[in-house]
């Protein structure tokens, strides 16, 4: 069978199209099967309907206990330290009772609580205002309740920083890579650029590998070394059998600024003995 | 018509090159900011918006104020505004240009700005602000240009321009309402979380914008052969007076709610701005200057016998414009961030580079304004004595 030039080009063109884009186009048309997050999931991955954290302040004793948390978090996430409060970037830090719970002031509160440092981080609100205001969906809520931050989509408008009532967000006012020490750099965590917002992500990258957040692990290690109980618990708020739910059902816990309706997922046990 | 901006007196070119130089200085400093980040500004983790966003907010008001000329002329058939309505529309074009530029220079990752269109997010007020601002810019360019070119040819403008003019009226209200919503819907920022915010924005806009317009009209009359007329300027003066009274009244409402309720979160930003909080009071002198200027302008404006003297009217407009610029272009944005969510205080003051960049954007706006007004004035001079109804 002979074919002329025109027929040849037709067949060649059609088969190229089918080969290049045809297969995937057909798949997409079949519907429902193509997802943006088509990645292999680790069998060990930790899953939840709504991740939550309980922080038992009474379990923290020394300054070292707190520093350990921040160091664990900031080192694995390559959080730059510019050494001044203006350009500061922090994912997890401490502050006083008065600053942590400004809507519950009490000047006569027990001295122990008044001077106690409270651990602060993103609340991973169920109704997050930062997600509501973001013009590019660079910050979004995942199915497991984590309020995520895509530092590669963020345009740096800082609307989320104005919207967050908890001061959980930091902006890269300077090039974050300049403040990293080569030898301390975690090469497994993606780098980010200048001019984007960042915050705690509940260690989504560790959860995917079956590990608890770095701060929780650090508090467990500290407890093991001191022979006590850890000050941080992490689990599924939707699961009545989870560790966090057990604490919530037996201890008096409070959240930061609950009156704003953001529904924070971080709870604080601030005093009293167990089952008090 | 564009060619009319290319011929002019020595004074015209000196002014144009002066503005170009200012734009150049701003641009060089912007390149520095582009390379080194927003860390070169006075903004911080706590005060994450500053001079840029303040200017943006203030200028949205200036842009919206064009409607104060459009409504009387097109809806109430107030013929005397026939000559100056174009000045309002072109002022809006220049103001929106500045607004968009201020948003741009405030972005941490400006090269990603198209993400706003690539990933449209209707639940974000910023998304709507982009739509209304660009729409308003487009409307005013088209309306201004079409009516002016029709005037030049001595014909009536095309019929399709009328619906656009009517659309521009609610659109003007929308740009400032949406801008107020950027602030008024944020939980935990007590200073901004106020239902009167949009109304207050509009009131201050309809005072500040027309005040600037009066000054521009007086300058145009002084420098060119085009006379916008005594009566229209007086009529705008009346609008400025009413709007400023409403603005001060609305501000008073904010004070009442904060201080009668005695809710600390609501009082703190006001205390910080007007008296200083815990020893921090960088903005106190500015806010008092704003208040005093507001009172001075009101006294000069409220009495018709004073207002009717153009020199006094001009002085009142300068006082009013500066007062509102401080209040809205600076205090409003910074005050919302102080105290911070932990009730701590981190103060803000713009750096030199930041100020030069802001001045560069203002110069860019005035350059656009100068070119558009030059064209308008030349057309008006050529067609003096001929009235075309729009």
Please tell me about this protein's structure.
The complex is a heterodimer of chains A (276) and B (390). Helices cover 30% and strands 13% of the residues of chain A. Chain A is an alpha+beta fold. Chain A folds into 2 domains: 1-38, no CATH class; 51-269, Alpha-Beta Plaits, CATH 3.30.70.20. In chain A, a hairpin with a 5-residue loop joins strand 4 (139-141) and strand 5 (147-149). In chain A, helix 2 (63-76) runs antiparallel to helix 8 (214-226). The radius of gyration of chain A is 24 Å and the shape is elongated. In chain B, helix 2 runs antiparallel to helix 4 and helix 8 (197-223) runs antiparallel to helix 9. At the A-B interface, helix 3, helix 5, helix 6 and strand 6 of A face helix 5 and helix 6 of B.
List the helices and strands and how they pair.
The complex is a heterodimer of chains A (276) and B (390).
Chain A lengths: L4 H26 L20 E6 L6 H14 L15 E4 L1 H4 L10 H4 L3 E4 L7 H5 L5 E3 L5 E3 L9 H5 L6 E2 L25 E2 L5 H4 L6 H13 L5 E5 L6 H8 L2 E2 L11 E4 L7
Parallel strand pairs in A: 1-10
Antiparallel strand pairs in A: 1-8, 2-3, 4-5, 6-7, 9-10
Chain B lengths: L9 H27 L14 H14 L2 H9 L9 H22 L8 H4 L6 H29 L7 H24 L12 H27 L6 H32 L2 H11 L9 H19 L1 H4 L2 H27 L15 H31 L8
- The sequence of SSEs of chain A as H and E is HEHEHHEHEEHEEHHEHEE
Q: Estimate what percentage of residues of chain A fall within beta strands.
A: 5-15%
Give me the Rg of chain B, rounded: 21 Å
Order of helices and strands of chain B: HHHHHHHHHHHHHH
- How many strands appear in the DSSP assignment of chain A? 10
In CATH terms, the superfamily of chain B is Formate dehydrogenase/DMSO reductase domain
Largest sheet of chain B: none
Concise summary:
The complex is a heterodimer of chains A (276) and B (390). Chain A is an alpha+beta fold.
């Amino acid at each position: 069978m002979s074919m002329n030039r025109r027929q040849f080009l037709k067949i060649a063109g059609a088969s190229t199209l089918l080969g290049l884009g045809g297969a995937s186009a057909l798949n997409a048309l079949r519907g429902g099967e193509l997802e943006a997050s088509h990645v292999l999931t680790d069998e060990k991955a930790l899953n939840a309907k709504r991740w939550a954290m309980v922080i038992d302040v009474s379990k923290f004793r020394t300054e070292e206990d707190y520093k350990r948390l921040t160091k664990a978090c900031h080192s694995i996430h390559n959080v730059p330290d510019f050494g001044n409060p203006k350009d500061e970037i922090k994912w997890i830090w401490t502050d006083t009772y008065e600053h942590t719970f400004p809507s519950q002031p009490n000047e006569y509160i027990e001295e122990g609580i008044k001077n106690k440092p409270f651990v602060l981080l993103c609340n991973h609100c169920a109704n997050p205002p930062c997600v509501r205001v973001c013009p590019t969906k660079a910050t979004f809520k995942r199915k497991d309740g984590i309020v995520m931050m895509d530092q590669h989509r963020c345009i740096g408008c800082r609307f989320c920083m104005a919207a967050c009532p908890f001061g959980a967000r930091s902006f890269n006012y300077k090039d974050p890579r300049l403040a990293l020490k080569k030898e301390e750099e975690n090469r497994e965590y993606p780098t980010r650029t200048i001019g984007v917002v960042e915050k705690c992500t509940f260690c989504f990258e560790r959860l995917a590998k079956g590990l608890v957040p770095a701060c929780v692990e650090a508090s467990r290690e500290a407890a093991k070394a001191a022979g006590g109980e850890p000050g941080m618990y992490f689990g599924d708020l939707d699961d009545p059998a989870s560790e966090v739910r057990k604490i919530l059902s037996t201890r008096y816990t409070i959240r930061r600024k609950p009156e704003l309706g953001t529904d924070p997922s971080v709870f604080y046990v601030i005093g009293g003995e167990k089952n008090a | 018509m564009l060619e009319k901006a290319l011929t002019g007196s020595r004074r015209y070119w000196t002014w144009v090159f002066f503005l170009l130089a200012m734009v150049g200085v701003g641009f060089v400093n912007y390149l520095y900011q582009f390379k080194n980040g927003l860390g070169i500004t006075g903004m911080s983790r706590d005060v994450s918006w500053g001079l840029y966003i303040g200017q943006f907010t203030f200028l949205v008001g200036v842009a919206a104020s064009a409607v104060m000329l459009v409504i009387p002329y097109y809806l109430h058939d107030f013929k005397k505004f026939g000559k100056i309505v174009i000045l309002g529309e072109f002022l809006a074009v220049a103001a929106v240009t500045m607004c968009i530029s201020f948003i741009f220079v405030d972005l941490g990752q400006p090269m990603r700005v198209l993400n706003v269109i690539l990933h449209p997010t209707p639940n974000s007020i910023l998304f709507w602000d982009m739509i209304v601002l660009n729409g308003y810019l487009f409307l005013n360019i088209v309306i201004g240009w079409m009516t002016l070119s029709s005037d030049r040819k001595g014909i009536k403008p095309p019929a399709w321009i009328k619906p656009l003019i009517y659309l521009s009226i609610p659109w003007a209200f929308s740009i400032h309402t949406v801008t107020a919503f950027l602030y008024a819907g944020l939980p935990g920022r007590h200073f901004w979380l106020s239902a009167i915010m949009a109304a207050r924005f509009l009131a201050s806009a309809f005072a500040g914008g027309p005040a600037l317009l009066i000054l521009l009209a007086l300058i145009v009359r002084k420098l060119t052969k085009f006379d916008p007329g005594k009566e229209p300027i007086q009529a705008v003066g009346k609008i400025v007076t009413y709007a400023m009274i409403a603005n001060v009244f609305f501000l008073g409402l904010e004070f009442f709610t904060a201080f009668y309720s005695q809710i600390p979160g609501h009082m703190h930003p006001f205390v910080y701005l007007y008296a200083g909080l815990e020893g921090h009071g960088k903005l106190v002198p500015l806010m008092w200057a704003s208040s005093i200027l507001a009172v001075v302008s009101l006294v000069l404006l409220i009495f018709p016998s004073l207002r009717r003297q153009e020199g006094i009217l001009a002085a009142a407009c300068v006082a009013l414009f500066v007062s509102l610029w401080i209040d809205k272009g600076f205090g409003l944005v910074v005050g919302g961030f102080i105290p911070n969510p932990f009730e701590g205080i981190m103060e803000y003051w713009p750096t030199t580079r930041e100020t030069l960049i802001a001045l560069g954007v203002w110069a860019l706006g005035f350059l656009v304004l100068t070119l558009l007004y030059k064209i308008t004035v030349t057309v008006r001079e050529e067609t003096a004595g001929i009235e075309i109804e729009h």
